[in-house]
Specification:
This protein is α/β, with parallel strands linked by helices. It is built from 12 helices and 12 strands. Helices cover about 35% and strands about 15% of the residues. The strands form 2 sheets. It has a 7-stranded parallel β-sheet with strand order 8-7-6-9-10-11-12, with helices on both faces. The chain is globular.
């Protein structure tokens, strides 16, 4: 049995990927709310051998896996694994696979769009014009600036390429300390401290782990130039929330383009909503028709390969 316990809002049901999955065996898809509750997620998985994880709010904890002893594989639609207890999965013999790289172009384009939107003050200028004003503010161009990219995976590499196309100098930092990988994709390996000190724009493309949680905090904001623009399309928890609000409210940095948040959906009273120097989008950098199609198909392909005895895109606790 293959189960999709968290297809809300529905993207899998009725898709080409759904048809492909049904060719592999019996498939049950749940499109109702509620998979964010541990006991409900476990109930929906039940005795299924394979779970296709669509939404990051569905948290596959050790308790969930314990309650579902037949579970042998979790196939994730997406890259992030912070909603999966990878160590528990390894202990319990559950293979975890993701679709890393499928959304790289879409997310990278969105990161650059956020840079431009903040630097060019596009949302604010648009609002002013609709109110009858004709603003004449000085804007910031990307050409000639320094872009610091944290994370040298598929998305970070694509952001770097786009930045270079704009005429930016790109510095990169690898979470694995892999300078050779950074150089292989044509980037300049740099230390975290060097990027914080030199970059005009900083873009975050790191997996959320215990080591990267709070990767940017008060100390990091203090090391940045006053005109720095921060872009985060990775995970909200990569940045210390209070430190970010403080840095923006005091003008310590020039602005932020954010597609990810500590609370999703963002709360109506979140201070970020009131800050004029932020440009916000609802965690949808990768929501293009191409990414949805290709990612869902890759998710099912991972299932097929697992069933054939040759699992692909396996994520380990250390990766």
């Amino acid at each position: 049995m293959i189960v999709v316990p968290d297809d809300f809002p529905a993207v899998f049901e009725g898709s080409v990927a759904h048809d492909r999955a049904q060719a592999l065996g019996a498939v049950r898809v749940d499109t109702a709310r509620g998979a964010d509750a541990e006991d409900e997620l476990a109930r929906r998985i039940g005795s299924a051998k394979i779970a296709i994880n669509i939404r990051a709010y569905a948290r596959f904890t050790d308790a969930v896996m314990q309650a579902c002893p037949a579970l042998r594989m979790i196939s994730i639609w997406g890259t992030g694994t912070d909603n999966i207890d990878l160590a528990a999965a390894a202990r319990r013999g559950v293979t975890v696979c993701n679709t890393a790289g499928v959304n790289a172009i879409a997310v990278a384009e969105h990161a650059i769009a956020l840079m431009l939107a903040v630097a060019r003050k596009i949302p604010a200028v648009d609002r002013e014009m609709r109110g009858g004003a004709w603003p004449r503010e000085t804007l910031v161009q990307l050409h000639g600036k320094t872009l610091g990219v944290f994370g040298a995976g598929a998305i970070g590499a694509q952001v770097a390429r786009l930045g270079q196309a704009f005429g930016m100098t790109v510095l990169a930092w690898s979470a694995r300390g892999d300078a050779a990988r950074v150089e292989a994709i044509g980037l300049t390996p740099s230390s975290k401290e060097d990027i914080l000190r030199r970059a005009d724009f900083i873009s975050l493309h790191l997996r959320l782990t215990s080591q990267t949680r709070g990767f940017i905090g008060r100390g990091e904001f203090a090391a940045m130039q006053p005109g720095t623009i921060l872009v985060n399309t990775g995970r909200g928890q990569l940045v210390d929330r209070e430190a970010l609000i403080e840095a923006l409210a005091t003008g310590r940095i020039a602005g932020a383009g954010l597609d990810v948040f500590h609370d999703e959906p963002i709360r109506p009273d979140d201070p970020l909503l009131a800050l004029a120097t932020t440009v916000l989008s609802p965690h949808h950098a990768g929501q293009t028709a191409e990414v949805r199609r290709d990612g869902l198909l890759r998710t099912v392909e991972n299932v097929a390969n697992f069933l054939s005895g040759s699992p692909t895109n396996v994520v380990s606790p250390q990766s």
